[in-house]
Fold each of these.
Amino acid sequence: MSLMPFVVAVEPDDLLALNEVVKAGKKAEREWLEETRKTYGVQFLRGKALSEARGMIRTEFRRLRERGKLAGTRDLVVAREVRAELKRRRMDGEYDPVPAEDAAVPGRRVGTGPQHYGRNGEEPTKLTGRMYVKLPGALGDQLVRACHWTSAPAVTALWEWQSRWGDGPEVIFREAQRSGAVTILDLWCAAMAPRPDADAILQKAQLQAQVVTTGDIIRAAVKRAIR
């Protein structure tokens, strides 16, 4: 089975709690295997009968993992909850593939404002932990497609907003500071930059709230797992 990797920013406490859920899942798997081996009488079998019994146990073990009934690894726990979260949001339907020109674009997509990174305004992010997880290929592809097409209308509108209002004076001035020095030209550009009114700022925030990222879904899946 192919796997699709994701690296997601998470709250450190959530990651610790998830580790405890995985630990409990491992214990449940061990207990299931011990009980099932007893049921099949594995300790009394030999030769072909033993091989067949072990094969049936492995098959049932895989089936229960695929159904989410057993989950003794982080990947299995998160995959189970990602499926549930996509279903809850009604994002588990069919979607077209992500256009190649969009799939190839690196970095953050437009619209992923502060709320996607665990902060408000200039407050520091709460998402200081990093979680590496591998989802089954079909589920990972569903996640990527669903997020892309669910967010597409808001992303288009945000590009239009950006074209109209630009970066704004605050962003221009901040970028100049990051470059090491603020010049007279920087100050002039900041002063002449268009300033969105209150309605435009509210519109941008509303559009940003409609953008759903793969990280949003996976973080929500982690919250589901640990609650």
Amino acid sequence: MTDAALERLRAEAARDDYGSMVRFARGLYAAGFGPRQVLRTCYGTDFPEEVFVLAEGGLWRPDLLARFTNQPWQLAVPPEHDGTQETPSSLVRTELRLLSEDPDLLPLLRITAAAPGKDDRIICYRLGELRAGRSTVFRLFGRGSARDALACGDGVLDVLVAEHATYVRALERQRDDPSNWGAGSVDDLEVEEARESLEAVRELRRQAGLRAAARRED
């Protein structure tokens, strides 16, 4: 990857053109950049440790109760680990809509509504908050406007831990309900699997905290 080729990719990169961001990220990886440097170069700010812990832990695991957006996550995973995929998921439509409404918002997760008829939630960072060194996350509903985004936590992993804990409690209540039998019933195995997923997310949060503390000491 020559300097001239990298500068051309940089000039072409735009957040509203997913393909151009992927090409730029691939060029940066080819030039020897790591995920942390790639995201800083693409978005003009450092990202919290939780982003890299999640990216390394496998964003597309079925046990996580969230769908990850294309940006920034695809750019945070090197090509050799199946990141920077050229074809975006359907979440790109939500990303582009919110970008057009408020470029400071960076969507991160879509959390499916727990009950029929309810709206999914979109969890976002704000680039301005990241530049100020804060990992605050903001929530809006899937059909809502960017102007409706409200602060909802201190980080992505806090949101995921809370979501998994709520899911475990819901399964436990359903399992213990006297009417829990027949098709669609919840058994002990399902509850145990949900608890294991909760503990896995808690461990990711613990790792992120340890790594962030270590970086502050350096």
